[in-house]
Amino acid sequence: VAVDGNPDAPAFVHADHPVCVNILDADALEAVARQFKVDGLYPAAEISVEAVAKAGTALGLPGIAPTVATLVRHKSAMRSALDEAGLPNPAHREVYTLAEARDCAVSLGFPLIIKPVDANSSKGVQFLESLDDLHDAYDTAIEHSFLGIALLEEFMEGEEYCVDGLVYQGHYILGGITGKERSPLPHRFDQSIYMPPRIAAREHEAIDTCAQQALRAIGFEHGTFHLEIIVTAQGPRIVEIAGRPGGGRIPTDLIPLAYGMDFIADSLRIALGEAPESSRHHERGAALYWLDAQPGVVTEITGVDEARALPGVRDLHLHAQPGDTLAPIVDCPTRDAVGYVLCAGDTVDEAIARARAVRATCTIHSA
Asked: How far is it between the farthest Cα atoms of the chain?
């Protein structure tokens, strides 16, 4: 049963039972679940995590508790939970007005990151160097917040990684750690992701430990998670925690290509209250690179066939088509409107080289 608020949701054509309801409405989700007598609820979308947790609890189905769902959806509440657990955390303040944001920014000191307290997909996230940057950035953050709240955080300098995994009855299972290339500031979104990460074993262990500590701090005991961690000069620090599978085809493609692990199957098993069964079989390389394009009307796309013929290409997906109007790329939705390439290799370096070759070959022209 596929549930979405969009009657034209792509998955509806594949579902036995497509149902169009508001996925933020826990009562509506509970009603659909009762109608079809489902055995599990699965929050594939970030914004549905709280409603799924509430509906699942009402039905007695496996999953995270509503209180935990609130912590992973509300970034300020997550920060407070990490503070209470004594885990390293950047200085942070939630703000409700521009005047309050100005006072807090001066108090915290620059540079800072401002973000909506409850948005997703890097929407409304910006880097602030001074008060001159604040006004427009604050308005953008508030615009993308369901609650109308912005969060100011101390800027954390360092490389960023994703951690994807499962928790089954309190037992932590690592799916994989993802390396990435991020956008230039002032925006903050991924331009590429790859597995395995190109880091030493000690750093890998430190990131893994940080993820486990953060999940314990918020009481995350059963479900699928996606974390973002920055390794600062003082050690790993949590950026965000999500109670659903990661995007960028991490759970469906990168983890299976890199490790031979059927992560999605185990993720669904856990949602049903069943024990995971999959394991790692090898270590190879996988890389997903988003394509770049200038804002404007797409006039032509060249090099597509040549790019698809290059070694290691598993998928070259073009969302942009001639005639489409592309906005400036400032977050994940505007980035995703262009397209991406997924490549595999015997090593991560080979996969990355192949993805870069595709991105250099396939060109989206705009005017």
From this structure: 55
